[in-house]
């Protein structure tokens, strides 16, 4: 695990195991935030944030976009990965090297060597937005981990079991935290409780989440 990191005006916090092969790397992304934010702006300038519709006809409360060779998308036809942004009709923006390297380094710090993400889902949460419990099962295989980077407002992450009805852990995620899960924990149910709380000094009333996967 990586060296303990400092939060703003807080004592050092250790990494937090969530399961045999799942961990919160506290403040892992914090040193790179100043470079990450322009990358996110550049991605959104090509493929804007949008609120997609689920197969059940519900409009998601979270706005999203993607970068990488593949992008996650949803509509009434189902959940899937696609090489082309359905909003623009063009390929998703390429994944910046900075983002790819961050994901690889976080995966390695959590014990997953050789992670090569080809998809980065960028979610934007505003107050009240949430993500219901779900499994990440749209990828072609489950051998690679999931790497999830939190920026902006604090969030309450739900990390459950392999069945939806199993109990969930409620994990506070702060600006710069990175959650990595794979192996025996790869198909654990997870979600985000409705966003609430104070504005972040840098990002205001929003939380940005970067979720890296090997999808293809």
Give an overview of the whole structure.
This protein is of the alpha+beta class and 216 residues long. It has a single domain (16-213), classed as Alpha-ketoglutarate-dependent dioxygenase AlkB-like (Jelly Rolls), CATH 2.60.120. It has two helices and 13 strands; from the N terminus they run E-E-H-E-E-E-H-E-E-E-E-E-E-E-E. The strands form three sheets. Strands 1-2-11-8-13-6-3 form a seven-stranded antiparallel sheet, with helices on one face. Strands 7-12-9-10 form a four-stranded antiparallel sheet, with no helix packed on it. It is globular and about 45 Å long.
Features:
216 residues; single chain; 2 helices; alpha+beta; four-stranded antiparallel β-sheet; disordered N terminus
Summarize the structure in short:
This protein is an alpha+beta fold. It has helices spanning 33-46, 97-109, and strands at residues 16-19, 22-25, 63-68, 71-75, 78-82, 119-125, 131-134, 146-152, 155-159, 169-173, 178-181, 190-192, 207-213.
By DSSP (H or I, 4+ residues per run), the number of helices equals 2
Ends apart, CA distance between termini:
28 Å
CATH fold-level assignment = Jelly Rolls
Tell me the CATH architecture.
Sandwich
The arrangement of helices and strands along the chain is: EEHEEEHEEEEEEEE
Round the Cα radius of gyration to an integer and report it. Answer: 16 Å
Helix-strand layout with pairing:
Blueprint: E1 16-19, E2 22-25, H1 33-46, E3 63-68, E4 71-75, E5 78-82, H2 97-109, E6 119-125, E7 131-134, E8 146-152, E9 155-159, E10 169-173, E11 178-181, E12 190-192, E13 207-213
Antiparallel strand pairs: 1-2, 2-11, 3-6, 4-5, 6-13, 7-12, 8-11, 8-13, 9-10, 9-12
């Amino acid at each position: 695990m990586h060296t303990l990191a400092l939060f703003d005006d807080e004592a050092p916090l250790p990494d937090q195991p969530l399961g045999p092969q799942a961990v919160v790397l506290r403040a892992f992304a914090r040193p790179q935030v100043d470079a990450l934010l322009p990358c996110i702006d550049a991605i959104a300038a090509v493929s804007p944030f949008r609120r997609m519709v689920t197969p059940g006809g519900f409009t998601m409360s979270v706005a999203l976009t993607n970068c990488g060779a593949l992008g996650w998308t949803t509509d009434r036809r189902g959940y899937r990965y696609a090489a082309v942004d359905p909003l623009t009709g063009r390929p998703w923006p390429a994944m910046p090297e900075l983002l790819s390297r961050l994901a690889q380094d976080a995966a390695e710090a959590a014990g997953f060597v050789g992670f090569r993400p080809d998809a980065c889902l960028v979610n934007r949460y505003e107050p009240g937005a949430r993500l219901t419990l779900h499994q990440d099962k749209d990828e072609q295989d489950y051998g690679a981990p999931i790497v999830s980077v939190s920026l902006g407002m604090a969030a309450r992450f739900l990390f459950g079991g392999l069945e939806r009805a199993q109990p969930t852990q409620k994990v506070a995620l702060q600006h710069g935290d990175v959650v990595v899960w794979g192996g025996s924990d790869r198909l654990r149910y997870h979600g985000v409780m409705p966003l609430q709380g104070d504005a972040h000094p840098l990002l205001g009333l929003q939380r940005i989440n970067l979720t890296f996967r090997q999808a293809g």
